[in-house]
Specification:
This protein is mostly beta strands and 415 residues long. It has three helices and 39 strands. The chain folds into two domains: 130 residues, no CATH class; 192 residues.
């Protein structure tokens, strides 16, 4: 009997030790920290007190910094964070920050996280100002100033309004980016995925915008438009991969340059003007639009609706199943110096939807054309300036100096 009790005691001790080890490894689970109201002095939300749960809206006052530590989870619930000062939320690649919402949250301007025009701009030199980095953002972002938004997973809408200068880079974004007003915006090196029906993934209705080096795609052809341009400010679209959209890869209804993009697997590769039929009202039909050095292939229709104000040159446009170029008006259009997948003139002509197929339309003039594919159409990766340590720089400087001295002495000897 004593041996049996001894064995039971030993088992109990071992189980107790195992429980203590688990607690030590996984930490003590505690209730969330409730927060609401005005933050009027510098405040830090720590990982030790995480998660934080908003029981009402949060206002970060002008001149005040709210710092969110790596590993913190913030539940916004049905509320929002309004930033008039500084929000510094910088996680790490292994310890991300999470911004969560409730399923019932109503999405409209002013909910989620809003950087107002009074919030502090990000300063790259000092590493200070508003920033969301290495976070998982499951709430809307409204931006009216110039925060740094990078290296995040963002699963809800980003809206840029007012007159900020914003860089949105190196994120995975599974919803929409909306740019309006007089914004100056760079959207670069993001993986932008459309997963919702009848949406425009990047929608530009105003502002000077650069959209570069992004992979913009729609899963299962559910997204409507990859990039929509409908403002009069210049939009530069370059070095992107745009694929899988049920309507248009790019809608170009405003002044824009479209260069070195790979556009494939869409119903329309590029549509010029807003409408897609002869009876639609065309917005921006005569805006200056330059389409050069792109590859448009394996779409249903390549480019639809070019006008006399559209420049289409040095592109590889081929293997689009219905047509490569389709007109919408009675005016003739020239699209010379492109590669059409062949050098046979009759074959190229049959890939043009123009007067020969509809007497209400003008004629596409595609001569002269390229005799081979243009190799300059591939998207170019972002150019990164290499960093050199001191030990690598000093020998280089020394070698250059020795060569200069040698050349100088040789010249002196010759003279």
């Amino acid at each position: 009997m004593i041996n049996q009790y001894s064995r039971l005691s030993l088992v109990a001790i071992l189980v107790s030790c195992l429980v203590l080890v688990c607690i030590a490894n996984f930490g003590v689970v505690h209730a969330s920290t409730d927060v609401t109201g005005i933050i009027s002095s510098d405040t830090t939300w720590t990982k030790a007190d995480s998660p934080y749960s908003l029981t009402g809206p949060i206002l970060v006052k002008n001149g005040v910094t709210l710092t969110v530590e790596p590993g913190v989870t913030v539940y916004l619930n049905d509320h929002y964070i309004l930033v008039n000062g500084t929000l510094a939320a910088r996680g790490t690649s292994t310890d991300k920050i999470y911004f969560e919402i409730s399923d019932s949250q109503v999405y409209y301007l002013g909910h989620g996280i809003e950087f107002t025009s009074f919030s502090s701009n990000w300063d790259e030199q000092t590493g200070s100002g508003c920033v969301i980095e290495n976070a998982v953002v499951n709430t809307t972002l409204s931006i009216s100033n110039s925060p740094r938004i990078s290296n995040n997973i963002i699963n809800e809408r980003i809206q840029v309004i007012g007159e900020p200068s914003v860089v949105i880079s190196n994120n995975t974004i599974t919803d929409r980016i909306l740019v309006s007003s007089q914004s100056t915006v760079e959207i670069s090196n993001n993986n932008v995925i459309s997963q919702k029906d009848y949406t425009t993934t990047i929608d530009v209705t105003g502002g000077s915008v650069v959209i570069a080096n992004n992979n913009i795609t729609s899963i299962g052809n559910v997204g409507n438009i990859g990039i929509s341009i409908q403002g009069e400010d210049h939009v530069y679209v370059c070095d992107n991969i745009i694929s899988g959209f049920r309507s248009r890869g790019i809608l170009a209804a405003g002044r824009s340059t479209i260069e070195r993009n790979s556009i494939f697997g869409n119903t329309y590769g590029i549509v010029i003007g807003k409408g897609v039929s002869l009876t639609d009202m065309v917005v921006g039909e005569y805006s200056e639009i330059i389409i050069r050095n792109n590859t448009l292939k394996d779409n249903s229709k390549g480019i639809y609706g070019p006008t006399t104000a559209t420049t289409i040159v040095y592109n590889n446009i081929h293997n689009n199943t219905v047509y490569n170029i389709g007109l919408r008006r009675s005016s003739n259009v020239t699209v010379a110096n492109n590669w059409w997948g062949t050098t046979d003139t009759q074959t190229i002509n049959q890939t043009m939807f123009d007067f020969k197929k509809d007497f209400n339309l003008g004629t596409v003039n595609f001569i002269p054309f390229l005799a081979e594919p243009n190799p300059e159409t591939e998207p170019r990766p972002t150019q990164v300036i290499p960093e050199f340590s001191v030990w690598a720089i000093l020998p280089t400087v020394l070698c250059v100096s020795l060569v200069a001295v040698f050349c100088k002495r040789k010249l002196s000897t010759q003279n």
